[in-house]
Amino acid sequence: xxxxxxxxxxxDDVGIADSVLQLTxxxxxxxxxxxxxxxxxxLTLATLSLVVRDVRRSPIAWLLLAALAAARIVYVxxxxxxxxxxxxxxxxxxxxxxxxxxxxxxxxxxxxWLLGAAFAMAVLxxxxxxxDYVDGxxxxxxxxTDARFADASLVFGGLTPEQMTQNRKFLEPLPEGxxxxxxxxxxxxxxxxxxxxxxxxxxxxxxxxxxxxxxLPAGRVTELARHAALVLFCAxxxxxxxxxxxxxxIAAMGLAQCxxxxxxxxxxxxxxxxxxxxxxxxxxxxVLADLTLR
Length: 294
Prior knowledge:
Elements: H1 18-30, H2 36-51, H3 53-56, H4 59-75, H5 82-98, H6 103-128, H7 131-134, H8 137-145, H9 150-157, H10 161-171, H11 190-215, H12 220-237, H13 244-256, H14 263-281, H15 284-292
């Protein structure tokens, strides 16, 4: 009888790459739960998962991490960020996959269905249930009022710092029935409206494409298009969106869908994971604003 060929380096005998589990552990370390008694256990388990292979391959460890994420959600209900819910499901999916006979294929399928469901719900909320999103109001207001988008609005929207301050005063809520005697003028350059429209429809179109490509029957063309859409979404959306944890999670889940021979795709997902980290830690829009608005 012929002996079975050895498992590829970085994966166990049923196919989950170490890099998928390690990136998930890194996510838990980079964005710890903000409840001290949950964080203490989660950080300990995440660290052990990162450096000890037996812990990393243990279904019990990931089941405990899923339970800790769920405990955090319950404790701060209803204020948890959306990606914490997805993180809890993902840790549970890892635990169930590691406990089964075909963990690689099981986790890849779980990743595809979880991402498909998450993006489909995002499209449903934005395109159907939120009229203020599809008519552009959401980004037209957010780009002016959310401090995290201020530098991007200055650089790409054509506003000056003085106009930004003026617009924020214009948008400040007043007591019911009150009116300003001399309201400030509202300035909305054409570039800002274009920026808001691109953010609205570009993001929605890409999210719809990802949902469709994840939920359609898998084929070679569909698979490659799905990976391309996921990498593009991570590389562009999180350049501005201040939710790095979601981006890291999408990158790790996309990596889980890569087959052993798809080395370039694996490199692409790890690259966008690092890129999102740089987006989160380096204020690149602020640097551009300083250079262009001097």
